[in-house]
Task: structure prediction
Amino acid sequence: MSGTGGVLSSQIIFNREDFVWCEFTLGVVTDGIRHNSFSGNARVVNVWWNGSKRDTNLNFRSNEWNDYNWFGFACASLAFSPGFGRGSFVSLLCDVIFWKSKFSDRLSLMHIVAKDDDKKVLNMLEKRTDSEAARIRRFMAMPDLSRTPGSPIAEIVKRVIAQPDFAGFDTIETSEIVPVDITFDLFDFAKDHPARSKSDTYYVDDTHILRTHTTIMWYYYLQDPDVKARMERGEAVGCFSFGKVYRKDEIDRHHMNVFHQIDGWYLIPKDKKIIGIEDLQNALLALAKAAFGEGKKYRFNPDTFPYTDPSLEMEIEKNGKWLEILGSGVVKGSVLEKFGIDSTKWNGWAFGPGIERLAIISIELPDIRLLWSEDERVKRQLKLGNKFKEVSKYPPITRDISFIVASNFIPNNYFDLIRDIGSDLVEEVKLLDKYENEEKFGKGKISYTYRITYRSIERTLTDEEVNTIQKKIYDETARQYNAGLR
Result:
């Protein structure tokens, strides 16, 4: 609403029409002078002027978050420019409607930071000179794409949090170095679960690891005094956490050991709602809609996770193929009890997808490394829903390496050595051969042959620079693993 000599000065901060407040801020500038201002927020859906109804939609900047859950009316006298009469004062009757989420019976946005636990461990890590410490520091120094403007990873996070179904959900940031017991014991990971092993997880010391999932936010969220108070009042709570996670993994065009997750969960008293399969499906559909838009085909399949039961996975149809995109589940009562929550009175759902997978499917990216590219020709195409077109398919260079090592050799650890030396120039490491021959190699020895594919996503590599990298890998393989090179 503007005209000669006047502009409505309130700013739009959210494109979320589900956020509605009982108070609001309106300001009008005429001839450079700001007139009336009222604090708070409202979505103005109906405006009457001189008895005539005017259709308009306005979202106003929030001065503070409110918890008000009621229907109401607001009146204000404002000075408007021509169109309403220069300098005249008009009475607006604002019909303020409270939108109610499927999952939440309150409106609240709270951002919690729980990142103090890792300071002591970080200080110890800085003093270490071993290769594993240097590797961990390097991983932690990599940019968090979920908080990098312009990245499709950040865009997915923004869209998910903005979904009306998740109105009122809080957000929380947690440490990237976390305790082992909180990560695994509280979430019902079996004692022999592979995720606990040093072949799958980066151990900072005997009791701390680089976080393997953002789901760990459950523990920190439930420690927050405000969250505790709300739950004591019987209020439903919901929360998001997102950021980098770390897992040892193979090297190929679809996997990285550093990637991003977004975790969401929702808890509600059972006397208000019993969470079931339909709620899981609704949560997954809301998240998928944020990542892929409307009009997509989805299907659900049963799944299994350590800390939810029942659980579902969702698949999306893309180019005639069904692709797994994410899973969710009803939070297990045994897990709630470990967090001090009475599972006879509370229930909830949770999900925690890898964000890269959503972005790769949306953009049809051929290589996960492209998400980290600084090439402007690549970055311009990293838009959700945009089909990526190869900038230039730089040629690969392959080199094989064969060696004999002890039978306790762990491939995932070896892949980290290759990452350390080859960095993002290594596209894939493929096992060509593995066999034992006690007569030929000796007892407790195994022979491995790997093919390393080098390819930059930004330039053509030369044989000379690849040979230099390959020699370093040869030398370090022999030194660190006491390997017999073949």
In short: Residues 1-108 have pLDDT under 50 and may be disordered. DSSP finds 13 helices and 22 strands in the chain. The two ends are 77 Å apart (CA to CA).
